[in-house]
Amino acid sequence: MVLGIWTLLWLFFLVRPDKDGQYGELAYFYSHGYESRVESLLGSGLYEYLRFCRQNLPAGSTYRLEGLGELSVRRVRARYYLWPLRMVGDDPDFIMVYGDTGRKFPGYRFYLLDEGRGSVYRKEGGE
């Protein structure tokens, strides 16, 4: 009896109408590699920018990410993708700016540009 009810609940869960393409996404995730999965989660622009930063920043650096919402899911995913770089709130080695925020960062100088996606600033006095 319990097994029958459990089976019916799972069948309802699998065929309910509010899935909105989740099965297609799941098939995509199972059929593609890690980098393709990350790109689909972050979006191609943010993914390319983060990959650029990951390749060009020294290992063990600290950073602050600008241009994404403070508590957004994309920010959390970006932080996960950039590991082992460490995100800090105050006094980071680098400030990564996704998009054009128009902000100035006193004590930091321009370091890298990822054409059309964002830029990176390095703390003055850093090597």
Strand and helix map with partners:
Layout: H1 2-15, H2 22-31, H3 34-42, H4 44-56, E1 62-66, H5 73-82, E2 86-87, E3 94-98, E4 108-114, E5 118-123
Parallel strand pairs: 1-2, 1-3
Antiparallel strand pairs: 3-5, 4-5
In a nutshell, what does this entry contain?
With about 130 residues, the chain is of the alpha/beta class. The chain has five helices and five strands; from the N terminus they run ααααβαββββ. The longest helix has 14 residues, at about 1-15.
Task: Report on the architecture of this protein.
With 127 residues, the chain is an alpha/beta fold. The protein has one domain. Helices cover 44% and strands 20% of the residues. It has a five-stranded mixed sheet with strand order 2-1-3-5-4. Helix 5 links the parallel strand 1 and strand 2. The model has no long low-confidence stretch (mean pLDDT 88).
